[in-house]
Design a protein that fits this description.
Layout (H helix, E strand, L loop, with lengths): L1 H18 L27 E3 L8 E9 L5 E6 L6 E6 L5 E5 L12 E6 L5 E9 L5 E7 L1
Antiparallel strand pairs: 1-8, 2-7, 3-6, 3-8, 4-5, 4-7
Length: 144
């Protein structure tokens, strides 16, 4: 039953990413599974988020430049196998947004994350996707 609700939530999150009307975002443009009009993908490959090992989480780091004074969003949706968290840091290393939940054994454990913030200046942001479980998670991600 939990898996059914998880799939429903993933479908909802996917539709929000694909059909969002927000026109701000990454300097290179929207990075979604497919473009509404052309069907072309900017983020064509799934992200492989490594498993946690030796009491250390698996980490995947991305760098994306976002425009100043415009809403910035980053989404990640995993395959359902492990708990993912998302942290966004600015060029100085300060955390500007995060979606971190408790582990599954404490009532959390989601692998769907979204971060939203409004950059003061255009700069490159570090996107950190964290896998807290000892199994690789295949995830899709995108920006507005």
């Amino acid at each position: 039953m939990t898996r059914v609700f998880g799939l429903m939530a993933a479908a909802l999150a996917f539709s929000l990413v694909c059909y969002s009307g927000v026109q701000a975002g990454a300097k290179e443009g929207k990075m979604r599974w497919s473009h509404k009009k052309t069907g072309a993908c900017k983020w064509s490959e799934a992200l492989i988020v490594p498993e946690a090992k030796n009491n250390q989480p698996g980490i995947l780091t991305l760098k994306i430049t976002f425009k100043a004074k415009e809403l910035a969003e980053f989404f990640v949706i995993g395959d359902g196998d492990s708990d993912l968290d998302l942290v966004v840091k600015d060029a100085s290393g300060n955390t500007v947004a995060k979606d971190v939940d408790p582990p599954a054994n404490k009532g959390g454990g989601s692998d769907m994350c979204v971060c939203r913030w409004t950059p003061e200046v255009e700069q490159e942001y570090t996107i950190i996707i964290i896998n807290n479980d000892p199994i690789t998670n295949i995830a899709m991600a995108g920006t507005n």
